[in-house]
What we know:
By secondary structure, the first copy, chain A, is of the alpha/beta class. Helices cover 35% and strands 24% of the residues of chain A. In chain A, helix 11 (307-318) packs antiparallel against helix 12 (323-334).
Amino acid sequence: MIRVGVNGYGVIGRRVADAVSAQQDMKLIGVTKVKPDYKARMALEKKYPLYAATESSVKDFAKNSMEVSGTIEDLLKQVDVIVDASPDDVGAKNKEKYVETVGRAIFQGGESPGVAEVSFVAQCNFEKARGAKFIRVVSCNTTALCRALHTIDENFGIERARAVIARRGADPDETSKGPIDAVVLDPAEIPSHHAGDVNTVLPDIKLVSMALKVPTTHMHLHTLIASLRDRSVTENQVIDAFEEATRIMVIEGHSGFKSTAQVIDLAREMGRPRNDLYEAVIWKDSIRIVEGEVHFYMGVHQEAIVVPENVDAIRAIIGKESGKSSISSTNSSLGILK
Amino acid sequence: MIRVGVNGYGVIGRRVADAVSAQQDMKLIGVTKVKPDYKARMALEKKYPLYAATESSVKDFAKNSMEVSGTIEDLLKQVDVIVDASPDDVGAKNKEKYVETVGRAIFQGGESPGVAEVSFVAQCNFEKARGAKFIRVVSCNTTALCRALHTIDENFGIERARAVIARRGADPDETSKGPIDAVVLDPAEIPSHHAGDVNTVLPDIKLVSMALKVPTTHMHLHTLIASLRDRSVTENQVIDAFEEATRIMVIEGHSGFKSTAQVIDLAREMGRPRNDLYEAVIWKDSIRIVEGEVHFYMGVHQEAIVVPENVDAIRAIIGKESGKSSISSTNSSLGILK
């Protein structure tokens, strides 16, 4: 059994804790939190051992009658791998602590690439990450871009690609963030950071990325345009490639998927926990080739898509299992069909 | 004096009526409305002669103590040109009436191109439209695309272009329209209708357009990617071309224009009526050339951008003035700086 700790119990940490608990080869040793809020209460109700993320928060938990099993330091002594799910840039500050104790950690995409030896998307570079001590799971948008572009590149070759990302303004519970009635250039300069981030996983893909922030909470929506090396490729071949790839869900607009809203409604109808969609979602009807350039729309559930990557990254760090085998275990445990 | 009537007093009609009133060579003979609402009241307060758009609405105006000068038929007898600003597809139904009376009409972009002899954007094809009896002013998005692409094509040559349009979901007063929390594919199929519509004005531009609908009310936001024939072009040359073009406003993100919201706020600060922006608005910081492809963001005020085109289309139909002269008169009367 791989003994796993999760440092941080926010959007990603909560989901990774559940996903780790669902693995037959892993044991969730505990999770950490700073504040004694409803999320901490839910962790205790799930019987997840709760650790105070800082010394100073121990008292706060006691005041709120929440039993903690110790502090982050106590948790680190008991685990084989720590998944850092703390806010952006906090992970890097935690690294020293991990180096001195566990020696093996997974960071999220909010950290700069230098925090780890490998930036990771399971179906793109699992073998490269195998046996590394520090792995960075890239952000939600980068994960989706890598899955889709890698699939096209492996099958048909990509000469160059362009991505326009309409980002959700905030997660559903982030009530203090905007925008309410504006499209924000994120940033006004082109390219956005996503292109460079894709290159941390797929160094050979030429990509220009552009990002906007819009007043939605549920998904990012990508518009992709890729020039293909193989100019004879048909739309059906592209559809087949996406249908065959793991962690890509192909849907059709004329089945009722007119927007991101119906996609999330599907996840609810499927009984997915927290309406999570671990797959990059591609609209079949949008796949259109014009003079050697393939165009399509892709939806990305920002809260969920990196969850399977975190699970696979744990196995990559341990180094015993192949990528194919890990992806297969993760998929079946999380209800990912292919 | 060119005697002008405006049939319809909604989003476009109201603005065109004001713009016509501001021209030294035109006289607004009257406007029509179906319903006796606050917009009709405002027309009367502005001393615009009000005509009932249908026979049946005459009574409704009387009931609401609003004095009408007659019906649309009475208006048509007195004008040299009628501007049809009725809802999508209603213009085509009105055409027969115009053929039998005035013989010269301007339609909006919601009509299919076949309604008129020429689809029109003043700085692109004024001379082609000169002397036509029926002119169609293209939609807001198509107008902006034509202004920007024509500028690039004239200066540097366009090999092919791609546009991703994040459309405002509804105008500020359209409270029954959505979306509230979703990105809608508009439609899921690629391309959207905009590419074909651009070709009604600029037949030689190869364009693939893609459109999304987002929960905003104030502006459309375009992301444009154009492959240039002249591969030696620099970003500064593109900026200069946009700076020189009429009805294109170049702004800078680092001056505080982080989103569409600040652009509309600028229009309010400039004292523009109804915060109208007649210009296509291009972010200077976004102009980026990567291996012969120029990328940039452009904002489009959907309610206002076609107003100067309607004024110029009136002069094109009369046929006495050149495009250059008409554009110059329209610009100075509306406060368009260049």
